[in-house]
């Protein structure tokens, strides 16, 4: 059974750094792109970027380029999304997803990130 | 980037009725690389349709997708109580991939 299990909710202050994780199981992790999707409170879905764990090839949406870093450790089947300096506007639920041909066929449960002073 | 506009913003229908949701792209979506997702409150989105018209695993045949170019449609032929949710379209034929803003399907 394919599963993506994300790390737990985080509460941070503006300016702090953060890395959240997404562990894949039930399939060959290196063979599928992993995507990250943001959902701000009460809003829609935003495509942030994707990574191919096999060779760490990474693509970002222009809206998120330079704002976050996507990485992966294929030895432990885990992808990451990180921030070096959080802002209040980063408050959102972040989903990791498995990309099939381009669509996202499996989703993690989401990680709520709250940034507040 | 391709902008996807979904309409209507909210659709109020009764169980048993037919739902028709629209997704219009600002440019042609190559190779009909368009997907539809359903999201219920407090849950992650679920893939319904990919490649504009292909049902994902486990999706009933009363759910169908159609369209090409810039105009796409999600149809639910006979609404069940579990169908009331928010629906998003996504194009993945052009980088960056983008989502529509969503259509809320609510019980009338």
Q: Give the low-pLDDT segments of chain A.
A: none
Rg measurement of chain B, Å: 13 Å
Task: Write down the overall geometry of chain A.
Answer: globular
Distance between the termini of chain B: 35 Å
Order of SSEs of chain A = EEEEEEEEEEE
The oligomeric state is heterodimer
pLDDT averaged residue by residue of chain B: 96
Q: Count the DSSP helices of chain A.
A: 0
* Secondary-structure element string of chain B: EEEEEEEEEEE
**Major protein interface:** A-B, 22 and 24 residues
Biggest sheet features of chain B: 7 strands, mixed
Helix/strand/pairing category of chain B:
mainly beta
Main sheet characteristics of chain A: 7 strands, mixed
Discrete helix count of chain B = 0
Structural class of chain A: mainly beta
Provide key terms for this protein:
heterodimer; A: about 120 residues; mainly beta; seven-stranded mixed β-sheet; four-stranded antiparallel β-sheet; 11 strands; B: about 110 residues
Report on this structure.
The complex is a heterodimer of chains A (117) and B (108). Chain A has 117 residues and is mainly beta. Chain A is built from no helices and 11 strands. In chain A, a hairpin with a 4-residue loop joins strand 5 (45-52) and strand 6 (57-60). The radius of gyration of chain A is 13 Å and the shape is globular. The relative contact order of chain A is 0.32. The radius of gyration of chain B is 13 Å and the shape is globular. In chain B, strands 2, 4, 5, 6, 9, 10 and 11 form a 7-stranded mixed sheet that branches. Chain B has a 4-stranded antiparallel sheet with strand order 1-3-8-7, with no helix packed on it. Chain B has no helices and 11 strands. In chain B, strand 5 and strand 6 (54-55) form a beta hairpin.
SSE layout:
The complex is a heterodimer of chains A (117) and B (108).
Chain A: E1 3-6, E2 10-12, E3 18-25, E4 34-39, E5 45-52, E6 57-60, E7 69-73, E8 78-83, E9 92-99, E10 104-107, E11 111-115
Parallel strand pairs in A: 2-11
Antiparallel strand pairs in A: 1-3, 3-8, 4-5, 4-9, 5-6, 7-8, 9-10, 9-11
Chain B: E1 4-7, E2 10-13, E3 19-25, E4 34-39, E5 46-50, E6 54-55, E7 63-68, E8 71-76, E9 86-91, E10 98-99, E11 103-107
Parallel strand pairs in B: 2-11
Antiparallel strand pairs in B: 1-3, 3-8, 4-5, 4-9, 5-6, 7-8, 9-10, 9-11
């Amino acid at each position: 059974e394919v599963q993506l299990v994300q790390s737990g909710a985080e509460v941070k202050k503006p300016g702090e750094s953060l890395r959240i994780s997404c562990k894949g199981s039930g399939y060959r992790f290196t063979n599928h792109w992993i995507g990250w999707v943001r959902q701000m409170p009460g809003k829609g879905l935003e495509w942030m970027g994707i990574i191919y764990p096999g060779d760490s090839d990474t693509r970002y949406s222009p809206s998120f380029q330079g704002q976050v870093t996507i990485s992966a450790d294929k030895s432990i089947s885990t992808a990451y999304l990180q921030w070096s300096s959080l802002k209040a506007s980063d408050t959102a639920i972040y989903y990791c997803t498995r990309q099939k041909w381009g669509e996202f066929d499996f989703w993690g449960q989401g990680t709520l990130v709250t940034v507040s002073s | 980037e391709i902008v996807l506009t979904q309409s209507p913003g909210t659709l109020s229908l009764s169980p048993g009725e037919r739902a028709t949701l629209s997704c219009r792209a600002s440019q042609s979506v190559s190779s009909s690389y368009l997907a539809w997702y359903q999201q219920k409150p407090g849950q992650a989105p679920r893939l319904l349709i990919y490649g504009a018209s292909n049902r994902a695993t486990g999706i009933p045949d009363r759910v169908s997708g159609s369209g090409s170019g810039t105009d796409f449609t999600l149809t639910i032929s006979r609404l069940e109580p579990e169908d009331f949710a928010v629906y998003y379209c996504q194009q993945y034929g052009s980088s960056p991939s983008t989502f529509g803003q969503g259509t809320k399907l609510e019980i009338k």
